[in-house]
Amino acid sequence: xxxxxxxxxxxxxxxxxxxxxxxxxxxxxxxxxxxxxxxxxxxxxxxxxxxxxxxxxxxxxxxxxxxxxxxxxxxxxxxxxxxxxxxxxxxxxxxxxxxxxxxxxxxxxxxxxxxxxxxxxxxxxxxxxxxxxxxxxxxxxxxxxxxxxxxxxxxxxxxxxxxxxxxxxxxxxxxxxxxxxxxxxxxxxxxxxxxxxxxxxxxxxxxxxxxxxxxxxxxxxxxxxxxxxxxxxxxxxxxxxxxxxxxxxxxxxxxxxxxxxxxxxxxxxxxxxxxxxxxxxxxxxxxxxxxxxxxxxxxxxxxxxxxxxxxxxxxxxxxxxxxxxxxxxxxxxxxxxxxxxxxxxxxxxxxxxxxxxxxxxxxxxxxxxxxxxxxxxxxxxxxxxxxxxxxxxxxxxxxxxxxxxxxxxxxxxxxxxxxxxxxxxxxxxxxxxxxxxxxxxxxxxxxxxxxxxxxxxxxxxxxxxxxxxxxxxxxxxxxxxxxxxxxxxxxxxxxxxxxxxxxxxxxxxxxxxxxxxxxxxxxxxxx
Length: 527
What we know:
Strand 23 (511-512) and strand 24 (518-519) form a beta hairpin. The protein has 16 helices and 25 strands. With 527 residues, the protein is an alpha+beta fold. It has an eight-stranded mixed β-sheet with strand order 1-14-21-13-3-12-11-10, with helices on both faces. The protein has a six-stranded mixed β-sheet with strand order 16-20-15-19-17-18. A four-stranded antiparallel β-sheet has the order 6-7-9-8, covered by helices on one side.
């Protein structure tokens, strides 16, 4: 059976020769694959909760891609397409009623059937469960109703342009109501959705095991018998495991290891532009925890925007990219990627340059004692350490004493969500609609607003962007919003990754899109 190997959204590449290895060319691989076998995927971190309502991480989304399908997905061009839904949603003339038809004959991994009532259960949970990371995305939904056995009606508080894109991510994942009822808060240990693979076991810090689900509606096109996800934070160790054959796919590979992999005849490399961002988040008002209204902090960076601006001016984005990433990423200074099909963001050439003299002047005007101490939480991976060290050295010249605080990724999330930090390396894998890169994080009391940022004008612009349907008007709104966010210097955007994935040459059928996920539904081993 032949399987097409699809590479991604504009700019996706399968790198086969030195001349075209990191370019914008799209290639395909239609090598036949055999049924059976186990595929081991090395992730750059241990995923957080395997609960679509609570999950926050890209590595978690990669695991979900194999076991929890959504109402909608994106294709290789970045277009939203139906997945569990039977067709794209229909919206009423006033934009306040959205109707979603559900595919018939679908079964969850626990054997129970999926219908409109199942979708209602999941959407209500995503919207209403305390601590839900989907709450901000689904807040515009007033009522969620089963209008028939396979028809869901969404009644909105106001028109909501990003909704289809929202339902193409975790907010659109449908969980088994029977499993939710049986396991409650422990659903994360027994996740059950519709997908090509079903959950088998998780050993914290070591592996997540999935096995082919025979009840999956498209099981005939699923070739692998089992997929294992292993967290290996060090990219160099991931590469060593690829070389030895202990793993077959290395996700989110560091540029230095990408360069090394290019010379390996037994390996293949995929890349795509990212829709997300990476940077440094500053705590300006998170005193009560994630998603709560801002409070007051006494730190210099929380009290005075001039201190935050000085910190940002101390960083040279271009040099950071060259020193840490061999120039293989792109500098960034806003939440929306230039690759976004809606309201493209600021191009790297327009980002502010390093200005030590102005940084020192701002600190003097703020009347703070120098050096200003900032604790910077970073992951324990070598790449994160290098980022911290470069920022530390740069900021020192402007009058900052950056103290690095390395910790495991799961601990970093817990600490920053609780507000126990000054600054941390913050990133997001990105969404097609710009609202998905902004509202959750920067709306007052947003579900993933770990920064304690709250600004009525920012909130007003977010709401305008959500309700506006005209593309040109939306672009103007998001440009204005990006300027407002930049002036707050709360989330300092530094660079945009490329999605680099390395795989063994015997593996075919992998899909790597601009959302950064590694899709393995059609993957298999060549004959």
